[in-house]
């Protein structure tokens, strides 16, 4: 039997006494590898190493950090089929998803490398006016970051995912608290990162990977004084607990948590009249994509009562029923899905529209569509809950006023979508859409919310509880802003300034000089 260990810097360690195994949800059986939960000594060792590594890593040139990130991407690809096989065995997700997520992970790393090579991300600002102080500002890394792996993305939001890539790009060492559902996948990716550390000469401790089946390791990491920030993707319960821990430290630290969202969709009358069937088909696929385990799953659809809305609901339910159930990530996640779904279905005032009651394999989830009227939805907040899985609520509103009231009553969301076939109709719903904008991080027009493009303009966050800080996103190049802070140099000799702030602009980056964006030297 093989054993899975913790990476403490570039060393493999297994000092913990508690062990656990991952589950193959497709087979509903344990995988072979035994993993060791990190001990207190290992937690402290990783944190202290990260603090020491920060002294060097924070000063390394962006071009060298770019080489490091590119090397990580190369080493992940070099893992080949063993990574994909392990991913599938631990997640129950199909090979196509595994391949796509690996490409997304390596693509993120290379995108941050490109950003570092260009260099303007440091946001250099210079105010140099005769007779006034010489003021120059730049962004600098904040220190070691703890990243919590996500259950639903074993690669793209986990060991070498967006949080890790952006933190390393910023100049911050990273300690990953690997997710117990895919610890084997995490260990393979960690081994690739360590190879990249060694090949590019990065300092020992710039990366560590710690295993844990419970909450204690994560809690200890968030409390450790060497840790300066936390990145988290997961439940509202887990994210808010980390926020409280971080706020109650002697020196509080930021927690950037992406947590819960039901991603409301407004289907306007014009869309129902002209394209209702198309949207019903598209949304049946979106609701069930990845067994409904995307954080952008459309869990709430809002429309105004009409024959066209009824027709849309009928087709949506029929199309959803046509789709075969698929496997969830873990028996516990399947159990949570059934529990949350049952809690909603125990309420009064809804109509179940899907009829499928198929026999399914263990850990496979039956999809479900229900409808409620607007008054019931407003009175009973149980219908507002996120049901993590292939489940969606369609709300039949009396009129625009009630639709607006529902939007105002919603919590913060990752996404909000508007479906419309007549641009003139916008004026009738302008207030509703403006209120939706104030509830979400990403406003979508005539599309589905599932799928999050990795690019500079993406926002993957939103008002609480969608995320703990809506000013920062976990996807795309601006994610780097979470791991930096500004520092201003006043009246410093030019040769002692960081290169990004020196008069000659030796890095040839875009800078704001006396309120004008320029690459010119001063």
TrEMBL record:
Domain Aldehyde dehydrogenase, first and last residues per copy: 16-454
Key words of the record: Oxidoreductase
Name of the protein this chain belongs to: Aldehyde dehydrogenase (NADP(+))
């Amino acid at each position: 039997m093989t054993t899975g260990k913790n990476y403490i810097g570039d060393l493999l360690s297994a000092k913990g006494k508690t062990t656990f195994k991952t589950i193959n949800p497709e087979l509903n059986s344990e995988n072979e590898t035994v993993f060791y939960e990190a001990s207190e000594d290992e937690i402290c060792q990783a944190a202290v190493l990260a603090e020491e590594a920060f002294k060097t890593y924070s000063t390394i040139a962006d071009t060298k950090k770019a080489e490091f990130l590119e090397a990580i991407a190369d080493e992940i690809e070099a893992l080949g089929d063993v990574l994909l096989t392990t991913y599938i065995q631990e997640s129950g997700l199909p090979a196509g998803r595994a391949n796509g997520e690996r490409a997304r992970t390596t693509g993120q790393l290379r995108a941050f490398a490109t950003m570092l090579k260009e260099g303007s991300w440091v946001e250099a600002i210079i105010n140099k006016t005769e007779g006034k102080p010489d003021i120059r500002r730049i962004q600098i890394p904040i220190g070691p970051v703890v990243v919590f792996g996500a259950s639903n993305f074993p690669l793209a939001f986990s060991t070498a995912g967006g949080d890790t890539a952006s933190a390393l790009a910023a100049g911050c060492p990273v300690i990953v608290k690997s997710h117990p559902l895919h610890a084997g996948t995490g260990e393979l990716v960690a081994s690739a990162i360590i190879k990249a550390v060694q090949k590019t000469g990065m300092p020992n401790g710039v990366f560590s990977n710690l295993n844990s089946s419970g909450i204690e390791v994560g809690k200890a990491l968030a409390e450790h004084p060497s840790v300066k920030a936390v990145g988290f993707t997961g439940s509202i319960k887990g994210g808010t607990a980390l926020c409280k821990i971080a706020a109650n430290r002697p020196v509080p630290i930021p927690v950037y948590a992406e947590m819960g969202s039901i991603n409301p969709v407004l289907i306007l009358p014009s869309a129902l009249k002209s394209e209702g069937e198309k949207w019903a088909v598209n949304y049946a696929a979106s609701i069930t994509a990845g067994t409904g385990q995307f954080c952008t799953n459309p869990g709430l659809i809002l429309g105004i009562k009409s024959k066209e809305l009824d027709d849309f609901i009928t087709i949506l339910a029929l199309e959803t029923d046509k789709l075969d159930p698929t496997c969830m990530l873990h028996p516990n996640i399947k159990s949570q899905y059934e529990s949350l779904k049952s809690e909603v279905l125990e309420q009064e005032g809804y109509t179940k529209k899907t009829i499928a009651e198929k026999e399914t394999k263990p850990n496979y989830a039956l999809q479900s569509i229900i409808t409620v009227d607007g008054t019931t939805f407003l009175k009973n907040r149980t219908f507002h809950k996120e049901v993590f899985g292939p489940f969606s609520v369609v709300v039949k509103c009396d009129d625009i006023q009630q639709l607006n009231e529902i939007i105002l009553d919603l919590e913060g969301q990752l996404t909000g979508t508007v479906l419309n076939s007549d641009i003139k109709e916008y004026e009738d719903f302008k207030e509703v859409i403006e209120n939706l904008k104030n509830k979400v991080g990403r406003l979508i027009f005539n599309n589905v919310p599932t799928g999050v493009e990795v690019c500079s303009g993406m926002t993957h966050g939103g008002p609480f509880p969608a995320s703990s800080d809506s000013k920062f996103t976990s996807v795309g190049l601006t994610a780097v802003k979470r791991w930096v802070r500004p520092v201003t140099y006043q009246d410093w000799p030019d040769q002692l300034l960081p290169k990004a702030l020196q008069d000659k602009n030796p890095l040839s980056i875009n800078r704001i000089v006396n309120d004008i964006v320029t690459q010119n030297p001063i």
